[in-house]
Amino acid sequence: MEADGGAAPSQGQLAPPAVEAVAPPKVERLNPVVQQQLNLESVKTRALGLYKTISHILEDFEAFARSNTTPKWHATALIIVPYASALAFFKYLLEAIFTGSLLGSQRKKKKSFDVISELLHCRQDALGQFSMVSMDLFNIVEDIKNVSKAFVVYPRNVNAENATILPVMLSSKLLPEMEAEDTTKREQLLLGISGLPVHMQIEKLKTRIDMIGAACEAAEKVISDCRKAYGLGSRQGPTLVPTLDKVQAAKIQEQENLLRAAVNFGEGFRIPIDQRQLPTSLPSHLADVLSFGDGAQNLGDNAGAYGKNTSSFSSNQGVLQTAGGQLIGRSVPSPSNAVSFDNASTPPMAYANSPRSGTNIMNTPSPQQQVQQQQQQRQKILQLPHQQQLLVQQQLRQSSAAGVLGQGVMSQLHDLTGQTQQKLQQITNMSASMQSQSLLPRIQFGLTGGHTQRNHPSQMLNDQMFGMGPSNPANMIAMQQQQQGGFGNISTHTQNLQSGMVNLPNTTQNPNFPQQRQQNQS
Amino acid sequence: MMFDLSFLNMCSSRVLEFDLDIIQCVDESKLKWTSFHLTDKWSALCKESLRLSRISEFLLLNPLYIIRIMHMLHVEALQILLQGLCGVPKDRVRVHEFCLKSGPNLGVVPSEVRLLCDLAQPTPTWTVRHAGGAMRGAGAEQLSVLVRSVVESKVSNNALRFFYAVGYKLDHELLKIGFAFRFQRVVPITVTVTSANRMPRLHAIDDAVPLTPGIQLVEITAPAAGDNYNEVAAAVSSFCEYLVPLLHLSKPGVSTGIVPTAAAAASSLLSNSGGKAI
């Protein structure tokens, strides 16, 4: 509440009625906490805007009333008169809001509000426009009711003269200033009849009230006639605000919560694991970004991310991609299935020239490395492409077209030999940590040229850090098959190696690996 | 291979560190990652595998969010109202959003990165965005907006592959379709009205259906710096006052109900326009 300096000392005596969490104000501005709690700023803004709008409306009507004397608009003129006083009160109301002092009685507000509503519904084309204004007014009135609960009668100045009677006045809810204004208004009203006896004054006032009442009723009748004449529906006054029944409101609330959860936390957008298969036809903006075999394994609940080869393959390797896509489109295999390929028969050395074999060889040593070096980061990263490689491996094994595809791969890879050499140099460092054994270093890396990422396994071979144990032939088969399906990047190949190694019967170095992979897939 | 991906562990408390790392990391002309956190191997990997071409914008934003859910019927009315308030034509919004979560190899605390692919442009443009934690504290409670640290950058179209390679996994994806108004009112304010669509199958954009058919999402965001977010918050709040007849806006975590005057306000807005095409 606003307080002048002189009001401060009387705070203790007056002890205003309980207001929520407001310390006795000794500052000249409203407590900002209260301001925010009551959203006074918004009320003020809206009241200002509304006030201006209504002023404009009033001006329009006055101008119209002067220019137009048709009978049905007489009501407008009649309304303006009481409206003037209502508007005056409304101005007072707004002033009170701005200054934060006590607000007037509720009765006047309601009356002014009703009158204003009448006014607003006078003209047909104005109705639509001003329905919003009336809604705003309704809202403001409601808000003011809430706001006024936080305020109490507060004398602006307390001095020796009224100190003794202030408690009494407060109990009667009359400000001394308001009382003075009341007296002035009373004098205005009784102008001309104040000299008469009281009962006559009363009668005259009664007749005045009746006249105003009659004017309002006539105005209302005119309004309803106009509504019927112009085919408008029943009045949409504030009392007729359509309220949603509880079921609808609950449904809307539920939908709202659903949307909030979805946008903020992603609920409702996640696809179950079994449905996370990359479609054969990707949208245009993803076609270049994702390769055919990538999607399923990059989903959070599954294997997770692994690198993807993309556009560099597009032209030359369309055949492979198609075949791989078909293969990969099948169900996601379980990690245990990856074992099977290891037991496949040893492929002839002809496969050694296929790019897949090179890839697989490079992937094979990596699980050994992990076990040796116990680098968890790598393991997890490698696991991600690994699962995809498993997927590819299994599918390829199931496919009888593996051989055909292998030849196709070889031809394409030969074209890329030239690029291989350069990239081998680059990736040497990266593969340094991958101390895997290489069985066919020269042949394989020469064939895996082309994409940067595919050269990684070649690098590993070059480094001669890889070693292929007795299980290598089995791995090679798997690798060939893997390569056929997914020309992944470095990590992809690495994954292949890991999977190969884990599932080899003679490899017991990585007991945790299947678990890790299973985790990724689960 | 050994590399320290700590810089990618975008915990909210380390956003500033992350910013510095990225600024050091990315040399726009050479695409060379030279952060002190990274080893050479990682540097080489990035250079070869991720063509972060043309990081044309790198903004450190603190967007202030007010999110409001509003009923579908009033979207038209809101569009008209915003058209009048903002004075700029609306922008179509059609964004394919990938929400990527970091795997366990990138730190104990999972972090989230969003890739936004703007499909409204003739050529799809990709943006990477990381939103940090919201500002907390008594001051934040007082504000009627949510303040978050956000890092955004345009990236090349292989960003998705890059994040997959690093260890991020796709948590979910969604499609946002709607419109947006970008205008200046003390600060540049963006009002976005979108319907969140889910895809029944992976990346199946054409089959996307709205998650909540009758309700759309209204977001009002504005960038701010660390020292002026109060003014920005005030500007955003005052703008929201204009929308009061139609909808109440609230912080993202707070729920609001239907505004009782929404129907009348919407009808009046729609009738005013009289079928004007916008």
TrEMBL record, chain A:
Residues 503-522 have a biased composition (Low complexity). It comes from the Eukaryota. GO terms for cellular component: mediator complex. Coiled coil: none annotated. Residues 500-522 are annotated as: Disordered. This is Mediator of RNA polymerase II transcription subunit 8. The lineage of its organism: Eukaryota, Viridiplantae, Streptophyta, Embryophyta, Tracheophyta.
TrEMBL record, chain B:
Coiled coil: none annotated. It comes from the Eukaryota. One of its GO terms (cellular component) is core mediator complex. Its main location: nucleus. InterPro entries: Mediator_Med18. One of its GO terms (biological process) is termination of RNA polymerase II transcription. One of its GO terms (molecular function) is transcription coregulator activity. Transmembrane segments: none annotated. It is found in: Nucleus. Keywords: Nucleus, Transcription, Transcription regulation. Belongs to the Mediator complex subunit 18 family. This is Mediator of RNA polymerase II transcription subunit 18. The lineage of its organism: Eukaryota, Viridiplantae, Streptophyta, Embryophyta, Tracheophyta.
